[in-house]
Amino acid sequence: MEVTITNISKIKQGIPLDVILGDELSYGTLDVYGRLKPDETSEYGFTAYLKDHIARGITLDWKPDNTEYITIKLYTPTADEEIDAYYAMVGRICAFWDTLMMVDGVEMDLREFFSGLKSVKMFNRERSDAIFNSFFTGERTKYVIQCVMFPLSIGKDEAMRFRGHHEVFVNWLHDKQKLDIYYAAANFYRGRDSIHGRYVLTEGVVSIFPSKPFVPRGLIDPQTRGPLKCDYYLTAFYSPNSKNIIGVTDYDNFIKRVPKDKMIYFDCDHVVIFALTFDEILNIIEPPVDKD
Hints:
Blueprint lengths: L1 E6 L9 H5 L3 E6 L5 E3 L7 E5 L7 E4 L7 E6 L5 H17 L2 E5 L2 E2 L2 H6 L1 H17 L9 E3 L6 E3 L1 H7 L3 H12 L4 E2 L3 E4 L4 E8 L4 E4 L21 E8 L4 E7 H7 L5 E5 L2 E4 L4 H8 L7
Parallel strand pairs: 11-14, 13-15
Antiparallel strand pairs: 1-6, 1-7, 2-3, 2-4, 4-5, 5-6, 7-8, 9-10, 12-13, 14-18, 15-16, 17-18
């Protein structure tokens, strides 16, 4: 859902952040990998979210000095609590400005907008069911969704759990995103004849890594102006104690050599790697020789 609110007040003033957020919402902006940078805004606006119900997020095209309009987007499927927060946000903005409101391109007054809240929640659940049912009709094998903290990937195993159980899905969204954890993403480097991606694992830090490395959706090659294509991937290991990179290895070898008791499933595209010691990292870089 997209709502554009135009200010028709005689006195023009921008909307303060505290009016937009109210008492319950937090905010941040996303980096190029879809990871949240808390308490920051960008030239494009920001994402608002509920700390107690972290889901898809509400995105706003907002600048503090824009006195003319604001555009607010809600993504489904999401948590009902996020829908309620979206409607409350629209109400606060319309109370602050004299407004003209467009909802998905249709002019609407505030009373008519709020009368549709129940229908939007019904649509939210219907969309949830439609997405997860599509795994079992052959239409879909994976569903990657941008969320507040980072993207999440849903496979058939997750879809089986979520199918017909919307609350299980939204609880999963929150439980994954509330973790105090580093979401690893590759930086890309151009050599003479190739481009490689490099992930970094830091000693002692619990991290999310992809099962198979990939170029994030929408990343552009600045030379070709087309989608970035990566030739190979590496993992570098950083030690805070030595304040240096202590080694580099091929990404696939890295994933294979992580101790089995230090890695668990996170979603259909990612694993969690628990904090590795310096010695465990050295065994990944240079595995011990089998003397037999």
